[in-house]
Write a structure and sequence with these properties.
Glutamyl-tRNA Synthetase, domain 2, Glutamyl-tRNA Synthetase, domain 3, Rossmann fold, three-stranded antiparallel beta sheet, two-stranded parallel ribbon, binds glutamic acid, mainly alpha
């Protein structure tokens, strides 16, 4: 049984066979939050024992995704640690030594059965309606001298674990599923080392988890069926069995396992679609866990202090993109303009090529942020919202609707002429939205033209559209000379 008084050590152990997907990211978040909530250690281990499907590129993608989510690891790639190395391909010697030890102690044995032999045994078991159709233990009692002779003669072999006679049922005390019982008769003497000298997943994982002192294994419940085999390995190694917590699958709205068909699934895609890492982590944390069943905004520090396994549900979680959007918008709405400017707006504008780092005063940027932030749902919206401000009088695009509804109406050329004079009269020293609004406000009465028409015309002239952010702020931001030049250009389209 596990010893719950030991300092918590948990690991996230992705296989770099692809990008980091929502399911893996949620597993990483649960492990990270559990470690943080218990003053424990969060370990990142790269399970790259499948050489045909693992790539360094995928490892880098996973590390980038972890960093983007802000899930810092205490031991693992880049940061090291006293239980390293933290990639399975660099730990082969340890697996070999552990397997040799089990072999020496009679807890593992070589098996020479060919694939044809195994297939024939399985067919025979089926034919006689034997409920157990696994490995028939042909080599379990081979004479060790004979085994040695065959090995020396170069015959290929695998190493199998010896499930002890009379082991009885294997009961997993799962922190999420409760006690799960597996019939020991169903456990065959499974392979721990392949004939090519590589360890199997169930063996390498346990050797690592034991060597790294992992106290809690939190992972997807697709691994629940592997767990009794892994328990056999712990027992053979004489290592304490950790607490297991198998977390549910993530389903799409149609009740099917989340996949490409449901839209974005990799962390990278969500980053590129413009979600905030804090909002993304908050949303994923709620897939199967909740602090009280209703709170939806759980800031990172709250997650890191309150996460517990007893509030993890065993029911599948449903991925709801609308809720993610909502949480993302909440995070944006609760940011200060300063934070929004530095963390989001400036990087987005620089990336979009609209400005360079260091362009514009702090005051100008914060004014821009004050109108952009409330209109931003995804980070990718920023450049679009700002484009009218960064345009010039020459480059501004006039939407057809803005021209037909705002400009091409009788009397609008006069309205624009009056607007230009009013702006001209605003002293440079008090060029701000308030003064600008004040100067324009008097025009409807002065010209005896409906307010709606006056402002529609000015908005169309300065912004090229009819739905831009507050007009006074936009005019302030583009500056007097540019605002006047825009109005001059628009007068050419006005009647
Ligand atoms: N490398 C395994 C996976 O990605 C890890 C499973 C485990 O956590 O034991 O599914």
């Amino acid at each position: 049984m596990s010893d719950s008084t030991k300092p918590v050590r948990v690991r996230f152990a992705p296989s770099p066979t692809g990008k980091l997907h929502v399911g893996g990211a949620r597993t990483a978040i649960f492990n990270w939050a559990f470690a943080r909530a218990n003053n424990g250690t969060f370990i990142l281990r790269i399970d790259d024992t499948d050489p045909t499907r693992s790539t360094d590129e995928n490892t880098q993608i996973i590390l980038r995704a972890m960093r983007w989510m802000g899930l810092d690891w205490d031991e693992g790639p880049d940061v090291g640690g006293e239980f390293g190395p933290y990639a399975q391909t660099e730990r082969l010697d340890m697996y070999k030594a552990a397997a040799q030890r089990l072999w020496d102690e009679g807890k593992a044995y070589p098996c020479f059965c060919t694939p044809e032999q195994l297939a024939a045994d399985r067919e025979a078991a089926k034919a006689r309606k034997d409920p157990f159709q696994g490995y028939q233990r042909r080599c379990r009692d081979l004479d060790p001298d004979e085994a040695r002779r065959r090995i020396d003669a170069g015959e290929p072999y695998v190493l199998r674990i010896k499930v002890p006679d009379g082991r009885g049922d294997v009961v997993i005390h799962d922190a999420v599923h409760g006690d799960v019982t597996f019939d020991a008769k169903e456990l065959d003497d499974f392979v721990i080392f392949r004939s090519d000298g590589t360890p199997t997943y169930n063996f390498a994982t346990v050797v690592d988890d034991a060597a790294m002192g992992i106290t809690h294994v939190i992972r997807g419940d697709d691994h629940l069926s592997n767990t009794p085999r892994q328990v056999m390995v712990y027992e053979a190694l004489g290592a304490p069995v950790p607490v297991f917590a198998h977390i549910s699958m993530i389903l799409g709205a149609d009740g099917k396992k989340l996949s490409k068909r449901h839209g974005a699934t990799s962390v990278e895609e969500f980053r590129d679609e413009g979600y905030l890492p804090d909002a993304f982590v908050n949303y994923l944390a709620l897939l199967g866990w909740s602090p009280d069943g209703e709170t939806t905004i759980v800031p990172r520090d709250v997650l890191a202090s309150t996460f517990s396994l007893d509030r993890v549900s065993k029911n599948p979680a449903t991925f709801d993109p609308a809720k993610l959007d909502w949480i993302n918008a909440e995070y944006l709405a609760n940011m200060s303009d300063d934070e929004f400017t530095d963390k989001i707006m400036v990087p987005e504008l620089v990336e979009a090529g609209l400005m360079d780092e260091g362009d514009h005063t702090r005051e100008w940027l914060c004014t821009l942020a004050s109108v952009v932030r409330p209109r931003t749902k995804h980070l990718g919206d920023v450049a679009g919202i700002c484009s009218i401000v960064f345009a010039t009088a020459e480059s501004l695009t006039y939407e057809d609707k803005a021209v037909s509804k705002g400009l091409a109406k009788e009397g609008m050329a006069d309205v624009l002429a009056a607007a230009a004079s009013a702006l001209e009269a605003v002293p440079d020293g008090s060029w701000n939205a308030e003064a600008i609004d004040g100067a324009l406000e008097v025009l409807p009465e002065q010209l005896d033209v409906k307010k709606r028409l006056v402002f529609q015309a000015i908005r169309a002239a300065v912004c090229g559209n009819l739905v831009s952010p507050p007009l006074g702020v936009v005019i302030e931001l583009v500056g007097k000379a540019d605002a006047l030049a825009r109005i001059k250009r628009a007068r050419g389209m006005a009647l």
